[in-house]
Each structure stands twice: as structure tokens, then as C-alpha cells.
Write a structure and sequence with these properties.
With 173 residues, the chain is α/β, with parallel strands linked by helices. Helix content is 58%, strand content 14%.
């Protein structure tokens, strides 16, 4: 069995879903953003401020390339911007089965309200920024998805059940 890769917009639940799947499936959980933050000993925001977005994206790329080589199956949560970066696109499907957590604008806006961790949402008119990023990223996420589920519609347990059933069906193909 290969890795299970979780992608989606900020606030879609990648980390929470990833941790739960790793528990249920008995696989380690890796959050690419957390790996980069730990390696640099800085927050995502600090890395963006000090070194810029391209530097951060290069660190993400190095991390996923290393994960492709790692043969122990894992549940991997990718940062929301990682699939958008052209240099990463050739690696995403090599990682494993891709699960896209698709959130509506309403769900994402509520979940991101008051969040100050993502440097791309800073400044005025947060909702417009979310809309713009969502419009840009949704087709890219969908392109990589082996499995697509909608977040914010059903209770968490139901979402996990839906993902696990889809993973089971996908593996049998």
C-alpha cells in the first residue's frame, strides 16, 4: 500500500482528517507544513517574511521528494499551496492516493475567521482573497484527486467513514 495524501484549501480539515485516518489505518501521520516549520525552527509566516514564498515552496518540494522515497505507508497532509506550484505537480500522484477535501466558500470562511497563520490571507478583504484563491486552486486540487469529499456538510465521523469507504473501494480497482 502506498501513501494516502490529503489535499485541500486552508481550513478544509487536512490535519484533523489526516491524524484520524492515520489512527484508524495504523499509519504514521506527516504534515508537510509541520515538517518544514520544524526543519527551519520558524513559523510558516516567519519563513515567508524572512525568506519569501519561493524559498518556502522549495522546502515543501524537498520534503515531498523525500516522502516519495520513503516506502513505509503514511498519511500525508500537503500544505494548501503545494499542489499549485508547478514544480510539485509531477510528484503529487507519485506520493500515493490523493484525497481532496473540498470545502464550500461558506465553510472555509467560517473556519478561517480569526486565523492569522496563513500569510496569503493577510490584509484587507479576507473573503475576496479566499474566493480568489479558491477559484484558482479548486481545479488544480480536483485534477490530482483520486477521491473527492466535501467537508463541512456532515459530522466529522461521517466524513471519516466516507473517506475510508472511498479508500477501500479505490484500492480494489
Amino acid at each position: 500500500m502506498n501513501h494516502i495524501v490529503i489535499i485541500g484549501f486552508m481550513g478544509s480539515g487536512k490535519t484533523r482528517v489526516g491524524k484520524r485516518l492515520s489512527q484508524d489505518l495504523g499509519m504514521p501521520f506527516i504534515d508537510v507544513d509541520r515538517v518544514v516549520v520544524k526543519k527551519m525552527d520558524l513559523s510558516v509566516k516567519e519563513i515567508f517574511q524572512r525568506f519569501g514564498e519561493p524559498f518556502y515552496r522549495a522546502l515543501e518540494t524537498m520534503t515531498i521528494k523525500a516522502l516519495i522515497e520513503d516506502k513505509e505507508p503514511k498519511v500525508i497532509s500537503l500544505g494548501a499551496g503545494l499542489p499549485v506550484q508547478e514544480q510539485n505537480q509531477k510528484y503529487i500522484n507519485q506520493l500515493g492516493t490523493v484525497v481532496y477535501l473540498k470545502g464550500s466558500l461558506d465553510t472555509l470562511r467560517k473556519r478561517l475567521e480569526g486565523s492569522s497563520t496563513d500569510p496569503l490571507l493577510e490584509g484587507e478583504n479576507r473573503e475576496e482573497k479566499i474566493k480568489k484563491l479558491l477559484k484558482q486552486r479548486d481545479p488544480i486540487y480536483a485534477k490530482f484527486a483520486d477521491i473527492e469529499v466535501v467537508t463541512g456538510v456532515k459530522p466529522f465521523e461521517g466524513l471519516i467513514e466516507e473517506i475510508e469507504q472511498n479508500l477501500e473501494a479505490y484500492r480494489k480497482k
